[in-house]
Design goal:
Elements lengths: L1 H14 L16 E3 L5 E5 L2 H8 L4 E9 L15 E9 L4 E8 L3 H13 L4 H5 L10 H5 L39
Antiparallel strand pairs: 1-2, 2-5, 3-4, 4-5
Length: about 180
């Protein structure tokens, strides 16, 4: 919650020593959930805010609407099953994700991880590079059509694209070579 984050930064500034003297909370890209039925989750800019900030010609909007997989086994007409709607708002040629919005079952639980990605400057290609967890509603954000056709640009400091090795903590030095048993 925002109040806890603000309180932690205040405690850091007061008690954390000189390296925390400038600690403060970022109020940008704060994930928000409305615990309604169905729940609604949002992080980043709305489509209108993105148009005002970047211009319509500099945006690419991805949308998806589907019957949530949780309802897949229901013996009902697909039109009668509750729907999940998702929207990705991407800006610039690199398609940086500047807004991510969802309404539907599980929206409240899936938003936190995507909020981290938005705060870190993830691109559509970064989301496309993630292997989906199936069957979940959140997999739609990482498989959203058209998949893999955008610019292959990462917002990450170390690109996860094209099977790149995971980032190792820099403070630990190079990984140790495994010792063979004799």
């Amino acid at each position: 919650p925002t109040a806890i984050a603000a309180g932690r930064r205040l405690a850091d500034r007061i008690f954390g020593g000189p390296e925390f003297a400038q600690a403060k909370i970022s109020y940008e890209n704060v994930p928000t959930v409305v615990f309604s039925h169905p729940p609604i989750g949002t992080v980043g800019l709305t489509e209108q805010q993105a148009i005002e900030k970047y211009g319509e010609d500099n945006l690419k909007i991805y949308r998806s609407k589907f019957a949530n997989l949780e309802y897949g086994i229901w013996d009902a007409d697909p039109d009668d099953k509750p729907k999940t709607s998702m929207k990705l708002i991407c800006a610039g040629k690199e398609e940086q994700v500047v807004g991510l919005h969802v309404i539907g079952q599980g929206s409240d639980e899936m938003l936190q991880g995507f909020a981290v990605a938005v705060k870190m400057g993830a691109t559509k290609a970064d989301l496309d590079s993630c292997i989906a967890i199936h069957p979940t509603a959140s997999e739609e954000f990482v498989t959203m059509f058209p998949w893999g056709l955008g610019p292959q640009v990462s917002g990450a400091k170390v690109s996860p694209l094209n099977g790149a090795a995971p980032q190792e903590p820099k403070s630990l030095g190079p990984p140790k070579t495994p010792v063979e048993d004799h």
